[in-house]
Amino acid sequence: MMTIIMFMLSETVLKYKKYIISFLLAGYVFTGHGIAHTMANIKHHAISNSPIPPTTLHDGGDLSSTATSSDDENKIIAIINGQLLTQRDIANREKLFELTAGIHLSPEVMQHMRPQLIKQMITERLHIQEMLRRSVNISPEQIAKAISGIEKQNNMPEHALRDKLAEDGVSLTTLIDQIRLQIGWGKVVQQELGTQSRITAKEVEQREKALKQEVGQPEYLINEIFVPVENARHPEQELQFTETIIQQLRNGAAFPIVAAQFSQSQSALQGGALGWVQEDNLDPEVVAIARKMPIGAISNPIKVAGGYIIAMLSGRRTIGNEMGTLMKIRQVFLPFSSKLNPQQPTPQQVATLNQTTKYKSTLHSCQQMEDANKKAGNIRPSDPGELQLERLNPEMANILKDLQPGQISKPLVSLDGISLLMVCSKERKNLSDISASEIANQLLNQRVEQASQQLDRDLHRQAIIEYHTPVQNNDSDKKQTKQHSSPSKGNNS
């Protein structure tokens, strides 16, 4: 299977909150560029300053735009308050999921996933309509900034994202619409919360006191995917969808991107990541499973109020007692011009090794490491961010554990180049300590989740949705009109 590289972009939509969308693309090594070509690319796809661009209206527009088309890709799947959802929309989303998950899904698996995917895209149409009603405008500059964030964080070359999508037959509009929707829905929730988006010092203080009383209790590092059940008396379809997703995750699909595309919880904006959470902030059914799960495991479907949860446990610790080593490092990567044959290195590869030997004696600071990496083309980022030694793979941990700040590693040779690492700082600390800002974020997460769920229920309750393709497994009619409703999920933030 091709290498999977995670893309993450962020947009601040609440005073204390960053929403993060995760995207994964397969089989690429990237080098970075700026915002200019992204802006040109977006304008090339006819994105205007209106909240919903013409391309989006084409894919899910009004009746007059596509209802008379005989083209199969314009086949109407559903009409949501007069707005179309077409076969083209569904096909693009399926292709995007395959591409970003980095796995191939059989037609049978896609068939199992499609009804739930249709439901999710109906919810997204309702979100877009609410953005329009509230005049929430996501400009081309914001979209460009978001895509540029993906490029810069992952050292992508010019046009790589667009070209990769095109190569796999995915409309760029599909990705742009998801970015617009994620940012815009965050702004809608911000409007809904109003002054409640402010977490007071008193609320933080009360939570700090409560946490002190929980010292010695377990807490869990959990990612979740929440699949809501529309009809509690007939959850078969949602259960089948949940089981299909679990199978794909266990086959290698990346949890963050699956969560970002399919989870109906606000945590989807962080790739399903809840962070470290205490038992009283989880559904009891999830707690019962988390207590027994091995680290790294993916749960079976967990039935909770309002739907099913898929949980992935990344860590377990005792509140008030988890010592760890935090490090900041810098990397210099010198690329080979061709793949290395250890038995017959090329002159360029020999020269590269000689250069790293020289660097070992001339680089003495992290700033010098950054400068050297920039000179080498910034093929890989010099700063990978803060690392916890105990969470690194054993090979990397062994390299870094004995290095002192300012000390450089031996050359690390791979088939495509040579790396040098330098430790900039190393600190031993209690990792269970939580700052006031982290507490504020936790409290705000809960508030955002509750507001989003309530608004979601209201939109579904008020919507007029006409299905042209059956969604429920036991549906036999080719055309149905219904008031769409959605149950609530328990507080999992």
UniProtKB/TrEMBL annotation:
<dbReference type="Pfam" id="PF00639">
    <property type="entry name" value="Rotamase"/>
</dbReference>
<protein>
    <recommendedName>
        <fullName>Parvulin-like PPIase</fullName>
    </recommendedName>
</protein>
<dbReference type="InterPro" id="IPR027304">
    <property type="entry name" value="Trigger_fact/SurA_dom_sf"/>
</dbReference>
<keyword id="KW-0574">Periplasm</keyword>
<feature type="domain" description="PpiC">
    <location>
        <begin position="217"/>
        <end position="315"/>
    </location>
</feature>
<feature type="compositionally biased region" description="Polar residues">
    <location>
        <begin position="483"/>
        <end position="493"/>
    </location>
</feature>
<dbReference type="InterPro" id="IPR000297">
    <property type="entry name" value="PPIase_PpiC"/>
</dbReference>
<dbReference type="InterPro" id="IPR046357">
    <property type="entry name" value="PPIase_dom_sf"/>
</dbReference>
<keyword id="KW-0732">Signal</keyword>
<feature type="coiled-coil region">
    <location>
        <begin position="434"/>
        <end position="461"/>
    </location>
</feature>
<dbReference type="InterPro" id="IPR015391">
    <property type="entry name" value="SurA_N"/>
</dbReference>
<keyword id="KW-0413">Isomerase</keyword>
<dbReference type="Pfam" id="PF09312">
    <property type="entry name" value="SurA_N"/>
</dbReference>
<dbReference type="GO" id="GO:0003755">
    <property type="term" value="F:peptidyl-prolyl cis-trans isomerase activity"/>
</dbReference>
<keyword id="KW-0175">Coiled coil</keyword>
<keyword id="KW-0143">Chaperone</keyword>
<keyword id="KW-0697">Rotamase</keyword>
<dbReference type="InterPro" id="IPR050280">
    <property type="entry name" value="OMP_Chaperone_SurA"/>
</dbReference>
<feature type="region of interest" description="Disordered">
    <location>
        <begin position="468"/>
        <end position="493"/>
    </location>
</feature>
